Amino acid sequence: MAESANDILRQGIAAAKAGDKEQARRLLQQAIRLDPQSEAAWLWMASVAKDNRERIFCLRKILAINPNNEMAIKGLRALGASPEPETEQTVTVPLPDEKKLARAQNALDAIVAEYRALKSSGPQIEWVRKKGGRIGERSIAWASIGLITLGALIVLGIVGGCLALIIPRVSEMAARPTPTPYPTSTPTATPTPGLTPTPSPTLEHTYTPSPTYPPEVPAGTEAFGFAGALTRTPIPFRTPRADYPDMEDAIQYWSVGECEAALESIERARQVAREELPESYFYEGLCRAELGDLSRGEDALREGLAKADLPLLHAGLAYLALMQGEFDEAIEEAQTALSGDPMLVFASTTLARAYMAIEQYDEALREIERLIERRPYDVNLIVTRGEINLARGDPEAAARDAHLALYIDPISEPAHLLLARADLALGRYGAAVLDLQTYLHLFPGSIQGYALLGRARYMEGNLDMALEAYDRALSVRSSSPDVAVALIERGGMYMDRGRYEQAFEDFDRALRIMESPEAREGRALAAFHTGRYRIALSDVETLLELFPDRADLELMRGQLLVLTREYDEGIETLIAVANSGELSGSQLADAYEYQARAHYELGTAPDAAPDNPHLSAALTAIESALALEETATRHYYHGLILEAVERLRGATFEYEWLQFWSRFYEYPFADDVEARLEALARSEEE
Fold first, then answer.
1. What pLDDT is stored for residue 349 in this prediction?
2. CATH number 1.25.40.10 is the correct assignment for the domain at 560-686
C-alpha cells in the first residue's frame, strides 16, 4: 500500500529533527510531489535547504499557498528578501533613441506653447471641471485634434520609424476634448481635485452623481444659504425664550459649540429672570459636559429637574449617561423624556445611539423611523438614520442619507462627517479625503475632521500624513468627547502597526475622557500585548457585561485568566468557548494552546501529585493546537510538555527545531531552549 503524503512528511520531519538533512530533503521532496500545497512540507524543506537562495524559494512557495503565513513572512525578512516574488521585466519592442525622442519632444512643446499663447490672448476666465456637453465644445475638440495631430506629424518626420511605436498613444491623446471654459464668479467650497498634497488612487475616478430629489424636499441652498453664520443644524426643543434675550443668546452659543459664552449668557438670564428657568439647566448641563466636566453637568440637570420635571432635562441626563457608557440608564432616561414629549428629537436620537452602542440596530432604526414619518426632512433624524445604517454594515444607505442631509442643509456638520465615514467604509479613501477637506474648509480646526482625515490618509497608505492629521486633531488640550474619538482613531492605527505601547497610551487617555466600548476593547488588546494582563482582564470582563455573546471576548478572557495564573477558571472558560462552535480555526488553536499552558503549569507545580492528569491533558491540547496551526510558541510548549513526561527525544527534536529557527527570529524563549538542550545533552552523557 502506497504511503500517503502525510506519512512521508512525518518521516521527513523526523529526519530533519534528527539532523539527517539529505534523508530529510529526499523525503520532503517526495511529500511535496504528492501534495504541492502542503505548507508544512515547504516549511520543513526551508529548514534543510542547501543555501539561502533555496530557502527563499521555499518560503515564497509557502506564501503562494498562504499569503498570511507569519513564519514565512518573518523568515524572508530575516533573510533580507521581499515577501513578494521577484519579477523579471522583459523588453518586447525596440525603444526609440532617447536623443531623438528629446528633439521630438522639444518640437512638440513649441507647438503646444504657441497654441496656449493663442488661447491666453482671449478673456481671462476660470477653468473648472467639465460637467456636460456645452456650446462650442465640438469645435474646440476638433481644433485640439488638428493642432496636436499636426505636432504629431512633425515629430513623426524627426524620429522616423521608431515613433510609429507610440503614434497610437499620441492619437488617443489627441482625440480627447480639451477642457471647456466656463466663467464663474461664485467660488465653490469644495476643493478642486488634484490640489491635495498627495493624490489618492481614488481621485482618478469621478464621484457617483448625486441623486435628484423631488421638489417637496427643501433645498438647503435656499433654506439655509451661505450668507449667514455657519451653525449646527438646530435641534428643535420647542422652548423658545424670546422674553429673555440672554437665554436666546445662550441657546445660539450652544448650537455653535461656544459653551463658555453660553454659560455666561445663562448666568445673566437667571439674574434678570422674574421666574424659574428650568430649561436653562439643560444647556448648562450639556455645556459643562462638552467642556469635560460630566459631574457638574449631571448636577445641573438634576437641579433643573428639582424645579420642573421637563422631558428636555431627562433627555439631557440620557445624553450624559450615553457619554459615560451607562447605556441602560441612557435608554431609561430617553424613554422617560419621550413619554413626556414623543416628538422630542434630541431624546429620540440619544435613544437610538444608546441602542446602537449595544448593537441593537433594529431597535435604533425603528425609533428613528418613527419620527421620520412625522418629520421626513429633519436633518438630525436623517443623519442618525445614516449612522445606524453605517453601524449595521450598509455604507451605501449611509451615503444616501448623508447626501440627502447635505441637500437639505449643506452646512450640517454631522452630515459631512457621515459622508466621509461612509466613503471610508466603502473603500473610497480618496473620496473621503476630499469629503474631509470640504468639511474642514467649512469647519476649520475640527477635531473629528482631522481624526477622520488621519484615518483616510492611513488607509491610503500615507502614514506620515495620517500622523500629521492626528497631531492636528490632538494639538488642543481638551477633555471633549471629540478628543477621545481622535485618540481611539490613532490608537487603532498604532495597533495596526504593532506599536502597542503608544496604542495603550491613546486608548487609556480616551477612557479617562469618556467611556467607550471601542476604547475599552482597544486598551484590552494593547494591554494584552504589553503584558498588562490585569488591566486587560478587567476591560474584557467589562465588555462581556455589554456583549455577553461575543466568543472572541470570552476566548480572550480565558487566555488572560491563564496569564494571571487563574488556571482552573481559565481552563473551564477555554473548554466552554472551544466547544461553542463559534471560533475560527485560528481562534480554536489559541484556545487549545492556552489550555495546554494552564495544564502544564498545574502539572509541574511543586505540590503536584506524581500521577496527576494535567500533563496528559496538556499534551493532548498542545498537539491539537499544532494540528490546526503551527507557531513557534506552540512548538516550545510541546517541547516543555514532552520533557515533563520524560519523552526526552521528542523534546530534543522540538528544541533543536526552535534552535534552528532562532537564527532568523528573536524568540523570547531562545535562551531557555539553549539551556534545556545543554541539560538534555549532559543527561544523555551521564
1. 93
2. yes
The closest alpha carbon to 466, from 478, 476, 477, 451, belongs to: 451
- The span from the CA of 310 to the CA of 104, in Å, is 80
Helices (DSSP H) in 95-136: which residue ranges? 98-120
Mean of pLDDT values over 177-184 = 31
Are the C-beta atoms of residues 412 and 379 closer than 8 Å to each other? yes
* CA atoms of 135 and 184, how far apart (whole Å): 16
Task: Provide the residue count of the chain.
Answer: 686
Average pLDDT, the chain: 79
Nearest to 398 by CA among 361, 439, 430, 440: 361
Amino acid at 534: R
- The amino acid sitting at 407 is Y
What's the CATH code, domain 5-78?
A: 1.25.40.10
Q: Which helix H or strand E contains 17, and what residues bound it?
A: helix 5-17
Q: Retrieve residue 222's grid coordinates.
A: 435656499
635 pLDDT higher than 80: yes
0.70 exceeded by the pTM?
A: no
**Tens-place pLDDT, residues 598-629:** 999 999 999 888 788 999 999 999 999 999 99
Go through 465-487 and write b for each residue having 16 or more CB atoms within 10 A of its CB, e for each that does not. Answer: bbbbbbebbbeeebebbbbbbbb
CA nearest neighbour of 590 among 564, 624, 567 = 624
The answer to whether the beta carbons of residues 378 and 345 sit under 8 Å apart is yes
> Which residue type, as a one-letter code, is found at position 544?
L
- Tell me 583's DSSP state: S
Q: Where in the chain is the domain with CATH 1.25.40.10?
A: 5-78, 560-686
What spatial distance separates the first Cα and last Cα of the chain, rounded to whole Å? 43
**At CA 560, angle to CA 555 and CA 565, rounded to 5?**
130
- Please list, residue by residue across 2-23, b when 16 or more beta carbons sit within 10 angstroms of its beta carbon and e when fewer do: eeebeebbebbbebbbeeeeeb
Q: Are 380 and 345 in contact (CB under 8 A)?
A: yes
Secondary-structure breakdown of the chain: helix, strand, coil percentages, each rounded to the nearest 5: 70, 0, 30
